[in-house]
Amino acid sequence: MTDAIAATTRWQSCAIVEVGTRTSAIKSFFLRLSEPFDYTAGQHVDVRLTAPNGYAAMRSYSIASAPSSKVIELAIERLPDGEVSPFFHDVAQVGDTIELRGPLGGHFLWPGPSNKPVLLIGAGSGVVPLMAMIRYRKASGEPVPVALLLSSRTWDDVPFRDELLELERSLPDFAFALALTREPATRRTDFSRRIDYRMVADVAGRLPVSPGCAFVCGSNAFVDIAADAALALGLEVGAIKTERYGA
Description:
By secondary structure, the chain is an alpha/beta fold. The protein has 6 helices and 11 strands. β3 and β4 (56-62) form a beta hairpin. α5 (197-204) packs across α6 (220-232). The two termini are 28 Å apart.
């Protein structure tokens, strides 16, 4: 086993240095790494909680922050029947330490330097790895046009909403559209229905040229619909990367 691989599989203790509320169901936890690592936007970490009796529960969470800090952000959605997320939402606080290992994942990764536009499609907390890509794109200054289509139940359920709106205003090569499924959209650039091919084609059409790749993250059913829509745009199968929550 190489040193790099060993580092990703070794557990380390990290301190929670900040907690922020994203929506009523999603909180961000900022963790200071005791052993900083390099990672690529789109990767994730494993988090492990161990009870006094030795019982351990482990979950994987995408990294939301751009790869440029000793502090990483995990945006965790509260799942009523979950073992790990309720701990973060109800118990964890600044100063606590948790165990994690990573970075992990070699498939759902920002494509690197390219002049071909990137299409991002997410639902709910599925925006988290896409957020890391958008933040990296801004921080790196790479001249890559990006379009994000994000499905959410309501305006108030949109994770990172204010940041995304500001990026839409400040970055001329970033297009952002919402698909609200439980209330009417108020912006003319958004939609008031579940995603479909016409919607994906509309958002892709806001890019200067056709996208060279697409990243899709969400539930199984959402990913199937969005990936089929990306295929219908003419993208090759290998150019469409998917990540399924709850799979």
